[in-house]
């Protein structure tokens, strides 16, 4: 656990040092769990967004996009169940006066047991070497099996208690597990209470006439209330989907773990409208499709897993998370939910307007069922960033810090470096920049020795460094260096664009999904 914490601190520090993520309002000591994306972070975030949008909307004939407003009529949130049911269980420690999510305290406890499993696996890998069968070891080693049964028992009980809103048993579980306050070490807990996560605000010029509103806690409802508008104007036939990227706001009890859990965040969601009765098939289809999208980025299949929900939301008949191995363990990255007809049916009831689809093949009208895919853009950013940050031991007994971002997502695709700041080399470097910038984000870097510049660009995640030297003036060639392998090759300036394009082209990356 200590190593995990140290690794995560390095991620946070690197994100600030290299212009990816800053604390919001930092000169005023910041705002808890609110962050700004800096110059490189804004580019990485944009590239992730585009990679999702192209895969979800552009490459699917039956999925279209939407950009709905953050403010919505307050009855929307009554109909969706958020006013009555959008709660987290909170618990206070009487000694430290700190507030925690009760379910997260239990999940952190099970994460420590998972760390014990990882430790057993690491020891066994060293002992058995190439003969080690990880799958068999996890299924047969008595100690590991015991740990896993312990985890399953705890999470099953937690899920059942939350589903039944048995908050007394949630507290009992915390006490039985002897979970202590991380800050004070005290086990002196209050009762568990429910806490609504929505931010309230007002719309209107005067306090007397202002309407009470909420900042939207999710983007999905904007899709549901526009279902018929999109279906009719787009002449969409079921099955079809509506996708959206947008901000959402939640007054988290304990917003923590850097950008993993924020109060203002961005979601990438798609609601897929289907015939009632076909939801199981489509649910499995979208689980496969979404996992294929993640794996196309090459972050390692071992870093992903599905987790089926023990406790289902009030609107779902099936739900699973795609979990990713963050520096602090496996946590939810994306959710796939079979939402039934709850949302459209509820909005029909509360609005008094029909939200039905006439199916010409069946010659009947019905309220469609929905399968949802929902991924946090900020969490995806953290997954990509933390997975890519590595320290490598080199052959000359030195180390380098390198941010091995998937080249398709890297903020800067190439850095152009004149070997020296004279003899016409900066001018030729600038000519190369002026040509490449029409196709890629590129940067000019002339400060320090070329080796130090390579290291700086490695740490910044730039896939290519292009060095202009005196030979470049004579034969119009440059040295191109690959970030991940440090391999260098001499190429014609005229070929540089094609070399970069081959590595960063979104089409070639997305074709890995097929």
Automatic annotation (TrEMBL):
<keyword id="KW-0963">Cytoplasm</keyword>
<feature type="binding site">
    <location>
        <begin position="372"/>
        <end position="376"/>
    </location>
    <ligand>
        <name>substrate</name>
    </ligand>
</feature>
<keyword id="KW-0067">ATP-binding</keyword>
<keyword id="KW-0547">Nucleotide-binding</keyword>
<dbReference type="InterPro" id="IPR033731">
    <property type="entry name" value="GlyRS-like_core"/>
</dbReference>
<comment type="function">
    <text>Catalyzes the attachment of glycine to tRNA(Gly).</text>
</comment>
<feature type="binding site">
    <location>
        <position position="218"/>
    </location>
    <ligand>
        <name>substrate</name>
    </ligand>
</feature>
<dbReference type="GO" id="GO:0070062">
    <property type="term" value="C:extracellular exosome"/>
</dbReference>
<feature type="binding site">
    <location>
        <begin position="265"/>
        <end position="269"/>
    </location>
    <ligand>
        <name>substrate</name>
    </ligand>
</feature>
<dbReference type="Pfam" id="PF00587">
    <property type="entry name" value="tRNA-synt_2b"/>
</dbReference>
<keyword id="KW-0030">Aminoacyl-tRNA synthetase</keyword>
<dbReference type="InterPro" id="IPR022961">
    <property type="entry name" value="Gly_tRNA_ligase_bac"/>
</dbReference>
<feature type="binding site">
    <location>
        <begin position="250"/>
        <end position="252"/>
    </location>
    <ligand>
        <name>ATP</name>
    </ligand>
</feature>
<dbReference type="InterPro" id="IPR004154">
    <property type="entry name" value="Anticodon-bd"/>
</dbReference>
<dbReference type="GO" id="GO:0006426">
    <property type="term" value="P:glycyl-tRNA aminoacylation"/>
</dbReference>
<dbReference type="InterPro" id="IPR045864">
    <property type="entry name" value="aa-tRNA-synth_II/BPL/LPL"/>
</dbReference>
<dbReference type="InterPro" id="IPR006195">
    <property type="entry name" value="aa-tRNA-synth_II"/>
</dbReference>
<dbReference type="InterPro" id="IPR002314">
    <property type="entry name" value="aa-tRNA-synt_IIb"/>
</dbReference>
<comment type="similarity">
    <text>Belongs to the class-II aminoacyl-tRNA synthetase family.</text>
</comment>
<feature type="binding site">
    <location>
        <position position="101"/>
    </location>
    <ligand>
        <name>substrate</name>
    </ligand>
</feature>
<feature type="domain" description="Aminoacyl-transfer RNA synthetases class-II family profile">
    <location>
        <begin position="135"/>
        <end position="418"/>
    </location>
</feature>
<dbReference type="GO" id="GO:0004081">
    <property type="term" value="F:bis(5'-nucleosyl)-tetraphosphatase (asymmetrical) activity"/>
</dbReference>
<dbReference type="GO" id="GO:0005524">
    <property type="term" value="F:ATP binding"/>
</dbReference>
<feature type="binding site">
    <location>
        <begin position="332"/>
        <end position="333"/>
    </location>
    <ligand>
        <name>ATP</name>
    </ligand>
</feature>
<dbReference type="InterPro" id="IPR036621">
    <property type="entry name" value="Anticodon-bd_dom_sf"/>
</dbReference>
<keyword id="KW-0648">Protein biosynthesis</keyword>
<dbReference type="Pfam" id="PF03129">
    <property type="entry name" value="HGTP_anticodon"/>
</dbReference>
<dbReference type="GO" id="GO:1990742">
    <property type="term" value="C:microvesicle"/>
</dbReference>
<dbReference type="GO" id="GO:0005737">
    <property type="term" value="C:cytoplasm"/>
</dbReference>
<comment type="subunit">
    <text>Homodimer.</text>
</comment>
<dbReference type="GO" id="GO:0015966">
    <property type="term" value="P:diadenosine tetraphosphate biosynthetic process"/>
</dbReference>
<dbReference type="InterPro" id="IPR002315">
    <property type="entry name" value="tRNA-synt_gly"/>
</dbReference>
<dbReference type="GO" id="GO:0004820">
    <property type="term" value="F:glycine-tRNA ligase activity"/>
</dbReference>
<keyword id="KW-0436">Ligase</keyword>
<dbReference type="InterPro" id="IPR027031">
    <property type="entry name" value="Gly-tRNA_synthase/POLG2"/>
</dbReference>
<feature type="binding site">
    <location>
        <begin position="376"/>
        <end position="379"/>
    </location>
    <ligand>
        <name>ATP</name>
    </ligand>
</feature>
<protein>
    <recommendedName>
        <fullName>Glycine--tRNA ligase</fullName>
        <ecNumber>6.1.1.14</ecNumber>
    </recommendedName>
</protein>
<feature type="binding site">
    <location>
        <begin position="260"/>
        <end position="265"/>
    </location>
    <ligand>
        <name>ATP</name>
    </ligand>
</feature>
